[in-house]
Please model this.
Amino acid sequence: MRRLLRNRRWQLLVIFLIISIAAVNITLKNNHIFNKIEIPVISLLSPVQKVLSKVGYTIKDNINAIPQFFYLQEENEALKKQVTELLQYKQNFMEYQRENVDLRNLLGFKDRNFQYDLVAAEVAARDSGNWFNVILIDKGEEHGIKKDMAVITDRGLVGYTISTTSNTSKVMIITDERSSVSAMLQRTRDNGMVKGSIDPAPRGYLKMVFLPQDANLVKGDVVISSGLGGLIPKGVVIGEVVEAKKESQNLMQYAIIKPSVDFQKLEHVFVIRGEEETNR
Model:
């Protein structure tokens, strides 16, 4: 059996050699035949070769692009981080710019009101349980602030202090229903009392009571503090008249007042500690 297998191997080898030699002789002697066949074959295979070549180049380009992809991904993340930082810088700059304008306005207001001994303060907290009618400021007894001192801004009257600690003070805003301030109409000089948001004044508005029946109230009239009672100095703007009505007994009038200060946007205030000694 082994001999038979060996004989077959030798036979196959001999046959392969004979076919190879014959093919070489035929090719040498009939070269013109293969030249004629070569062109159609190449033409037939050319589209396939182009496709395979294109696929090969595509695969090569994709392989070469892998490192570039990771580099671009890292660069994109770095650029996103820079954009985020720049947006934060822009936000901070705008906030500082706005704060600078506010402080300049406050400084100008303090210079214009040189007759008062003013202490600047910031709003540190609000009493959310009472419709923002009580605020906490960051100045207190160590800064010469005491109870029942007027608190104002460049727009007008905010309220007055109701309690103090060494470094903080609570301020009751004039819209609080417990608030009561002596006031008068700037145009007619008619006196009355401005109270907080009580019926029928809408929430956030004031009610001016005890106005004379013959007082000539006009929508837009400015209301200022009268200075009576000594709590609030005379001449501080409180707000303007938006509506006037007769009391039920027709002996008095009352007016609905819109405050001049936007209390929900309140950030900086001044506490009036008194008048400057030079003006006394």
Q: What stands out?
A: The mean pLDDT is 77. DSSP finds two helices and twelve strands in the chain. The longest strand covers residues 116-126.
